[in-house]
């Protein structure tokens, strides 16, 4: 999907900046392009600029600099209600004094649509979210999950080409949230709607998106499909923010044939992929995912790198075991192993050897 971006841009941010006080930039020089039909998630901690970007696209905030285009036309000066964009918020924003049917009718009346057309569209939208039986109820008579479905139906009822969602599942419990994640993704893809979704929940971003833009400090740190973000983070921030990650501090000794030799702070030497380092003497933070580390000798692959470790904690979590180790001076080194019949259970205090392949170890910025 990412390849088709350049030629058929549907949503475009070009050198967009946003400042509220004329000094501090909340969004810095943002360039971003989405093709039609893509599900893009803006992910990042609070204050990273993701919601501001969404609000500028919706028209509730104005860009201080740069241009935002929708299907080729600049929309900076077009008011929100004329942009033809569907919106879903965390607090649902349903009108409490109207029935569900009236809530859905509202965006259609604003667009001067006739009664029979309105009724057909309302029925279709409520069918999509399995809420047609509730057409005459008020929002207060519905559960949180039902209200969120209605909010989604209202965003889709006038068949917009672009839907924006700001933390729409934040108020729901875990089980319902997971069910809604699947439903929203399925709906967006089956209807071919371009979706921009804002969340600070990394699992949500990984499971729902075609691509994820990871924001920090007003800048996109990395824009990539979910598997690439997780398997190949481009810097320390992305590695730490997406999924669980082990880090070891050290200094680059040499870079040769696409491999960086890193001396860890306790003196150990290990081979890594050089991602954010370019020369000997540079400080680096080495990143290894917990599920890429092995401590069953028989399972270690040829060419694996081994280090001594001490077991601090062994936790049974059902489908996996989570082992906390002391490795090269780091007491928070985690290994995740599948709950398999041949999995060794380790007692705290046990001295073991752990290993991983050099390609699973990334030398990132310090």
Descriptive report:
This protein is an alpha+beta fold and 366 residues long. Helices cover 23% and strands 36% of the residues. It is built from eight helices and 19 strands. The chain has a six-stranded mixed beta sheet, with helices on both faces. The protein has a five-stranded mixed barrel with strand order 11-12-13-19-14. Helix 2 runs parallel beside helix 4 and helix 3 (115-128) crosses helix 4 (144-156). The two termini are 32 Å apart. The model is unreliable at 1-6 (pLDDT under 50).
Q: Which helices and strands, and how do they pair?
A:
Layout: E1 9-19, E2 25-35, E3 39-43, H1 50-58, E4 65-70, E5 73-74, E6 85-89, H2 100-110, H3 115-128, H4 144-156, E7 162-166, H5 174-191, E8 194-199, H6 202-208, E9 211-216, E10 219-224, H7 226-231, H8 236-241, E11 246-256, E12 259-264, E13 269-274, E14 283-288, E15 305-316, E16 320-327, E17 330-338, E18 351-356, E19 361-365
Parallel strand pairs: 3-8, 3-9, 6-7, 7-8, 13-19
Antiparallel strand pairs: 1-2, 1-4, 4-5, 9-10, 11-12, 11-14, 12-13, 14-19, 15-16, 15-18, 16-17
């Amino acid at each position: 999907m990412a390849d088709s971006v350049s030629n058929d841009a549907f949503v475009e941010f070009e050198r967009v900046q946003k400042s509220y006080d004329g000094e501090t930039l909340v969004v810095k020089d943002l360039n971003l392009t989405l093709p039609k039909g893509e599900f893009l998630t803006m992910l990042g901690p609070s204050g990273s600029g993701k919601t501001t970007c969404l609000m500028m696209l919706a028209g509730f905030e104005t860009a201080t600099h740069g241009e935002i285009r929708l299907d080729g036309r600049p929309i900076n000066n077009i008011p929100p209600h004329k942009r033809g964009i569907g919106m879903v918020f965390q607090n649902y924003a349903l009108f409490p004094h109207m029935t569900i049917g009236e809530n859905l009718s509202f965006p259609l009346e604003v667009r001067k649509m006739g009664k029979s057309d309105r009724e057909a569209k309302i029925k279709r939208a409520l069918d999509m979210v399995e809420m047609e039986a509730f057409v005459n109820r008020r929002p207060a008579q519905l559960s949180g999950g039902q209200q969120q479905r209605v909010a989604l139906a209202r965003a889709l009822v006038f068949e917009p080409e672009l839907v924006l969602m700001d933390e729409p599942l934040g108020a729901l419990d875990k089980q319902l949230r997971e069910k809604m994640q699947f439903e929203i993704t399925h709906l967006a893809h089956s209807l071919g709607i371009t979706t921009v979704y804002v969340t600070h929940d990394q699992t949500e971003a990984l499971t729902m998106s075609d691509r994820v833009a990871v924001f920090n400090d007003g800048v996109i740190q990395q824009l990539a499909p979910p598997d690439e973000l997780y398997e190949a983070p481009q810097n320390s921030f992305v590695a730490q923010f997406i999924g669980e990650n082990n880090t070891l501090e050290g200094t680059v000794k040499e870079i040769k044939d696409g491999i960086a030799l890193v001396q860890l702070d306790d003196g150990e030497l290990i081979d890594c992929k050089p991602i954010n380092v370019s020369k000997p003497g540079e400080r680096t933070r080495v990143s290894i995912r917990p599920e890429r580390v092995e401590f069953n000798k028989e399972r270690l692959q040829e060419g694996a790198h081994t280090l001594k470790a001490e077991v601090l904690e062994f936790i049974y979590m059902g489908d996996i075991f989570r082992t906390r180790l002391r490795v090269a001076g780091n007491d928070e080194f985690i290994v995740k192993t599948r709950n398999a019949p041949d999995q060794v259970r380790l007692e705290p205090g046990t001295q073991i050897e752990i290993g991983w392949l050099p390609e699973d170890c990334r030398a990132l910025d310090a």
